[in-house]
């Protein structure tokens, strides 16, 4: 038993810590952008936040692709099936690059229409469109990083994606300072400078992942013939398991775009407040994404080995850790929200709304993160990708969105009150339903 305890802790930390640090770096990427662009004013901040939502939408869809693929890769890794890993990686890469190409084309051809989904402010539309035309060039690099990083993380080679994230953030922070404000003789390009910095950072991240993965002889060194060695039966099984995860993330992302549209149409100040809070949310959620990753890899590996009881025990332990970390991190956010918000160059009205919203987020953190770990870390790793799709869709479109739209646009409630309605209307329902499904064990559906 002691050997198992030690093995569990060692494996969990070896995966969760690098993934957490990697996500922390990417979240600091967003935070730095928000801090620097916030110095330009509320409208540029809101405009870039709106353009960033489109990029975030792509990121979530790519995560859906990789989440479905990681089910196969983790279980194949446990079963020591290298050809299966390479086939899965090949399909993942094709899907991710094709999706990135579609998003990039839409951003180049109709940026004003995309930004116009979030606001009627002409100035915000103009600024956001200029930003979107540039940052969309980073989308193919994001697809490559997501595909390669998924393979490496699912096979417990997590340090290479972490190094890629570190190099990416260094490039982004440096170029942001030079190009937004025109330091050291560089032109001061404002929000367009921030977009150029993001493109360069994405390219560096992809380059480091592939150079490191191939150079160190990981499974990323896959012959093209192995990646394309797929049968019709494998494609059907991949789609059966992977498509619901991708669709789950896409539907969830669309719903969140609609949430953003509600706040954007309340006022530009409301959207600025939500943009500030979102950058802080991203920073504090990194521990839970690390938890999801370690949970998914370990459960998938146990199921691939046929050890179902350890898979269930792994799920229980990760849920207990999720509750503990939610209480600790939420308490920290609650205590430090005022000094954190003082770092942002925003108006007093926006700061007041952001402070109230941040308090709600801190107090509700446990209810927000338990469904995340159950769906992404437990159910999908077990091979059950449909349950989350069904429950997330029902809670989002039948409960959360109607309630939030009514609160913000019909009843004209305040930004904090609307935000509270948005969170509680979904999360209480999901915690109850997902908790029952976790206890039932019906999420264990091997694909190997």
What does it look like?
- The structure is a single chain.
- The protein is mainly alpha-helical and 448 residues long.
- Helix content is 84%, strand content 0%.
- The chain contains 17 helices and no strands.
- It has helices spanning 2-38, 42-78, 82-109, 111-116, 122-135, 139-154, 159-181, 191-215, 224-227, 232-266, 268-284, 286-305, 308-341, 348-363, 365-379, 386-410, 415-440.
- Helix 12 (286-305) runs parallel beside helix 15 (365-379).
- The chain is globular.
- The two termini are 27 Å apart.
Describe the SSE topology.
Layout: H1 2-38, H2 42-78, H3 82-109, H4 111-116, H5 122-135, H6 139-154, H7 159-181, H8 191-215, H9 224-227, H10 232-266, H11 268-284, H12 286-305, H13 308-341, H14 348-363, H15 365-379, H16 386-410, H17 415-440
Task: List the main descriptive attributes of the protein structure presented here.
single chain; 0% strand; 448 residues; globular; mainly alpha
Overall mean confidence score, pLDDT: 85
Query: Mind summarizing the main beta sheet?
Result: none
**Helix percentage range:** over 70%
Task: Find the structural class using helix and strand composition.
Answer: mainly alpha
Low-confidence stretches are: none
């Amino acid at each position: 038993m002691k050997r198992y305890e030690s093995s569990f802790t060692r494996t969990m930390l070896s995966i969760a810590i690098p993934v957490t640090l990697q996500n922390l770096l990417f979240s600091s990427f967003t935070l730095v952008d928000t801090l620097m662009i916030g110095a330009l004013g509320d409208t540029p901040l809101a405009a870039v936040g709106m353009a960033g939502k489109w990029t975030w939408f792509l990121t979530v869809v790519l995560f859906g692709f990789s989440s479905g693929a990681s089910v196969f890769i983790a279980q194949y890794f446990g079963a020591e099936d290298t050809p299966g890993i390479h086939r899965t990686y090949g399909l993942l890469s094709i899907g991710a690059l094709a999706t990135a190409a579609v998003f990039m084309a839409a951003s180049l051809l109709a940026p004003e229409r995309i930004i116009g989904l979030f606001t009627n402010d002409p100035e915000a539309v103009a600024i956001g469109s200029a930003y979107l035309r540039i940052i969309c060039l980073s989308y193919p690099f994001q697809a490559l990083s997501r595909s390669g990083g998924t393979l490496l993380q699912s096979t417990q080679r997590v340090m290479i994606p972490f190094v890629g994230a570190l190099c990416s953030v260094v490039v982004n922070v440096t170029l942001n300072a030079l190009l937004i404000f025109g330091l050291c003789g560089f032109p001061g390009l404002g929000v367009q400078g921030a977009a150029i910095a993001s493109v360069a950072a994405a390219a560096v991240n992809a380059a480091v992942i592939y150079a490191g993965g191939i150079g160190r002889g990981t499974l990323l060194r896959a012959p093209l013939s192995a990646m394309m060695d797929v049968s019709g039966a494998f494609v059907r099984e991949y789609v059966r398991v992977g498509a619901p995860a991708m669709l789950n993330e896409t539907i969830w992302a669309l719903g969140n775009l609609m949430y953003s549209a509600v706040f954007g149409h309340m006022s530009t100040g409301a959207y600025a407040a939500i943009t500030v809070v979102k950058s802080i949310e991203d920073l504090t959620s990194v521990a839970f994404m690390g938890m999801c990753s370690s949970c998914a890899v370990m459960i998938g590996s146990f199921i691939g080995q046929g050890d179902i009881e350890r898979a269930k025990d792994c799920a229980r332990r990760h849920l207990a850790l999720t509750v503990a970390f939610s209480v600790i991190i939420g308490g920290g956010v609650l205590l430090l929200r005022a000094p954190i918000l003082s770092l942002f160059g925003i108006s007093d009205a926006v700061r007041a709304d952001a402070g109230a919203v941040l308090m709600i987020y801190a107090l509700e953190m446990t209810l927000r993160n338990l469904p995340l770990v159950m769906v992404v870390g437990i159910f999908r790793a077990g091979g059950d990708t449909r349950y989350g799709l069904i429950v997330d869709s029902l809670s989002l479109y039948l409960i959360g969105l109607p309630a939030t739209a009514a609160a913000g646009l019909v009843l004209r409630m305040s930004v904090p009150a609307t935000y509270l309605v948005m969170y509680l209307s979904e999360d209480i329902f999901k915690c109850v339903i997902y908790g029952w499904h976790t206890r039932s064990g019906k999420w264990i559906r091997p694909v190997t």
